[in-house]
Design brief:
The complex is a heterodimer of chains A (111) and B (114). Chain A is built from no helices and eleven strands. With 111 residues, chain A is mainly β. Chain B has strands at residues 3-7, 10-14, 19-26, 30-38, 44-49, 56-58, 61-66, 71-76, 85-93, 101-102, 108-113. In chain B, strands 2, 4, 5, 9, 10 and 11 form a six-stranded mixed sheet that branches. Chain B has a five-stranded antiparallel sheet with strand order 1-3-8-7-6, with no helix packed on it. Chains A and B meet through strand 5 and strand 10 of A and strand 4, strand 5, strand 9 and strand 10 of B.
């Protein structure tokens, strides 16, 4: 599935670094999502952008900051992360209320 | 708080066996329920169920939803080693506004041995 792409695929960063994850969808969808998948835990929704409306999970720390400049691109800006933030970060897109299709994910390791 | 419980958490079978995976849910303003298959990468979409009692089929896989009992099952017949994966159940609900969100269960890890 190449409809949703994510870069980088792997990222190692220190706790003082600033980095950004990028997601791009080529499916003509109008909603995009960030999920976090930690080992042995369910997928956790972090943020939703749909028709310029943003919805966020209140439990997501402020060291994660999303940006959605248009309906095809989504970023997740990372700063001063903690080792427990190491996880697989998945981007998904959909038509509003439609089936979500996932990107391949970015495997993040925070040292 | 929205809740999804999948059972069993893991299952080991032999090729050719039939398996049934279970998903019970409680979500606000339920709209639909999705099943995904996840191997070593991102989840891939299997089914979206919106109506009770209507079975959806795709090859050896089938799924059905019971909106009264808040329950869905995923059946796989004549299993193959390629079916080995984590199967995720995700009901979609709407807690307000125009968006809905998926709440994922922990998944069922299926291992199919030759």
């Amino acid at each position: 599935e190449t409809g949703v792409t994510q870069t980088p695929r792997h990222l190692v960063m220190g706790m003082t670094n600033k980095k950004s994850l990028k997601c791009e969808q080529h499916l003509g969808h109008n909603a995009m999502y960030w999920y976090k998948q930690s080992a042995k835990k369910p997928l956790e929704l972090m943020f939703v952008y749909s028709l310029e409306e943003r919805v966020e999970n209140n439990s997501v720390p402020s060291r994660f900051s999303p940006e959605c400049p248009n309906s095809s691109h989504l970023f997740l800006h990372l700063h001063t992360l903690q080792p427990e933030d190491s996880a697989l970060y998945l981007c998904a897109s959909s038509h509003q209320r439609g089936t979500q299709y996932f990107g391949p994910g970015t495997r993040l390791l925070v040292l | 708080e929205d809740k999804v419980v999948q059972s069993p958490l893991s299952l080991v079978v032999h090729e050719g066996d039939t398996v049934t995976l279970n998903c019970s849910y409680e979500v606000t303003n339920f709209r639909s329920l999705l099943w995904y298959k996840q191997e070593k990468k991102a989840p891939t979409f299997l089914f979206m169920l919106t109506s009770s009692g209507i079975e959806k089929k795709s090859g050896r896989l089938s799924s059905i939803l019971d909106k009264k009992e808040l329950f869905s099952i995923l059946n796989i017949t004549a299993t193959q080693t390629g079916d080995s994966a984590v199967y995720l159940c995700a009901p979609a609900g709407n807690s307000g506004g125009s968006n809905y969100k998926l709440t994922f269960g922990k998944g069922t890890l299926l291992t199919v041995n030759p």
